[in-house]
Design brief:
Length: 219
Amino acid sequence: MSLGILYRNITVNNLIYQLRFASCWSCNKDNKKLVNNLFCSHCNVLQMPDEKENYFKILGVDENYDIEEVTLAKQFKTLQMNLHPDKFANKKKEEQEISAQYSSLVNEAYKTLLEPLARGIYMLKLRGREIPEKTEIDKEFLMKIMEKNEEVENADTEKQIMHLRKENRKVIEDLQKQVSAAFFAGDLNRAERVLSIMKYYTSIDSQIEAVIREKGIIR
Ligand SMILES: [Zn+2]
């Protein structure tokens, strides 16, 4: 096959792909602009989520490690309001199915982007990287983590546990700043390294939260 034919084929395939995505699955009309980013502007039927879109795009926020929780929550609430099952109760079965699928995708996207560790891991994944299961961690660091674990286990009073929580969150916050700087500089090795450290502190945080629930501490 000559290069010319190959090139033409690719162009034709791309065109078909774009056309399929640009037209509404229900009324077949051209659908480049969606209402609220979700609905066909002609027949108002919910469109399918674009599989190529990442979680940031799905939630309509900038693709950045530094994310404003308030903005993220606002976007999430608006989407879920528009995707609420009640709104589709009298609609076609296909549309009901799309709404359920879309809604769970939005949930997953929100959960992932909200959590600093999950967000970092997701951003690495978008760049074709992942944290290896077994990272080489030096002994000194491991000892420090083990000590923290013990401290949490031995915390008896509300004051003690809340102090540990505050201390640990501060560490996570500092790590977040480092991850952000690493992504900003395009230093993926560094982002990977800091995130694998963050993993340990995030697990301490979950442990602290479990203790708080067990003791019935109201915050
Ligand atoms: Zn339509």
